[in-house]
Design a protein that fits this description.
With 365 residues, the protein is of the alpha/beta class. It has a single domain, classed as Vaccinia Virus protein VP39 (Rossmann fold), CATH 3.40.50. It is 36% helix and 14% strand. The protein is built from twelve helices and nine strands. Helix 10 links the parallel strand 6 and strand 7. It is globular, with a radius of gyration of 27 Å. The relative contact order is 0.08.
Length: 365
């Protein structure tokens, strides 16, 4: 009776209340459903995020570079590796878009049977590494030499160039095998076409001795280009080397052992494609663990009170120069300490003959 009397007394007010109740209930439902979908998406594809979420703002002064995580409102897009890479089309950040295509069409996946969702794409999410580790070299007038191994079609090199474009003291080089003399492989030539020639900068880079054609895993080629084209009296210090070559474990190791002693203190050597693929897997399973073991090495005789004795170094030419290792999915950064760069002889510049075969013994005794 009271409800009837209330409705009769003010029917318009009652109707308005019912409408507001429906609107509020619908809002709550949509909010909960939206949260559920977003949470579910983030669980399955933990690498899907808008570019600004992982971006780095780099504020340069005459003496320093300060890197801070940003929300996008104060983002300098010129220094967002993902934004640059996606515009240029490099596979170094191609994972973000391809993982969405791959989720909807298995034929777009490079590794469709991979158990881990983000591996199915087959492309990469390297922006977080490069935003962090290349940012200090993006400041104006910061003299440094940069070397990429594996120019291929030039999209990676162009991305690095754009990211470092504010630094007028940066001198960028790249190495590529496909631009050697064409012909049979057994004659030391290249039979599969010149990939590098497809890039519009190709001839200019050759003319300026910035693109070096040859096998970047061969000591003689490396030593010739290093001593004649890069290690000049007027050259800036070598600070960054990035291996993105053939993704073959022996060649990845060759880059580490040749270039790490030659990188100046505080510099970095980056190895991409540290992943479980047949040709490169042994770098992941054999070389990286040994370098990591050496990073924490103390040494000394047996019989010490707490330290393990008779603990040999795996790689004596690398450990004295090693500050740290930072890895994310399928990419590792080897950081140089403050020991001066030096010029080892050939024996100290190539991969030890037992580097792969001796891994288990060095790691586990």
């Amino acid at each position: 009776m009271k409800v009837k009397s209330a409705l009769s007394a003010n029917p318009r007010k009652f109707a308005l209340g019912r409408i507001l109740s429906y609107i509020f209930s619908g809002f709550i439902f949509v909010t909960i459903w939206d949260f559920y979908q977003n949470h579910k998406s983030n669980q399955v594809y933990d690498y899907i995020a808008p570019p600004q979420d992982s971006a780095v703002s780099v504020k340069s002064t005459a003496t320093s570079v300060v890197s801070t995580t940003t929300t996008g409102q104060d983002l300098d897009l010129d220094l967002d590796f993902r934004a640059i890479g996606e515009k240029i089309g490099t596979d170094k950040v191609g994972g973000y878009s391809n993982i969405l295509h791959c989720a909807n069409d298995e034929n777009r996946c490079i590794h469709p049977k991979a158990e881990r969702d983000v591996c199915r794409s087959g492309l990469h999410f390297y922006d977080t590494i490069y935003n962090r580790w290349l940012a200090p070299y993006a400041a104006e007038n910061n003299p440094m030499q940069f070397l990429e191994i594996g120019f291929y079609q030039g999209k990676g090199f162009e991305t690095y160039s754009a990211f470092l474009s504010h630094n007028k003291g940066a001198e960028l080089h790249s190495m590529e095998i496909s631009c050697i003399e064409p012909g049979p492989q057994d004659e030391g030539k290249w039979p599969w076409g010149n990939f590098a020639k497809k890039h519009r900068w190709y001839q200019d880079l050759l003319d300026k001795d910035r693109l070096h054609c040859g096998d970047a895993s061969d000591y003689d080629f490396l030593h010739n280009k290093w001593t004649t084209k890069m290690k000049r009296k007027d050259a800036p210090p070598l600070k960054v080397v990035i291996d993105d070559g053939a993704h073959i474990h022996s060649q990845m190791a060759a880059s580490l052992f040749y270039w790490f002693p030659r990188i100046e203190p505080g510099g970095i050597l980056v190895v991409e494609d540290v992943e479980p693929i047949s040709q490169g897997n042994k770098f992941r399973t054999h070389i990286v663990p040994q370098v990591m073991k050496d990073l924490h090495w103390c040494g000394g005789p047996s019989g010490q009170k707490t330290l393990i004795g008779n603990d040999p170094l795996c790689f004596p030419t690398i450990q004295p120069l090693l500050q740290g290792i930072h890895c994310e999915m399928h990419i590792c950064v080897f950081v140089r300490n403050n020991v001066p760069a030096h010029e080892p002889d050939k024996a100290g510049s190539i991969t030890p003959s037992d580097a792969f075969e001796n891994a288990q013994k060095c790691l586990f005794g």
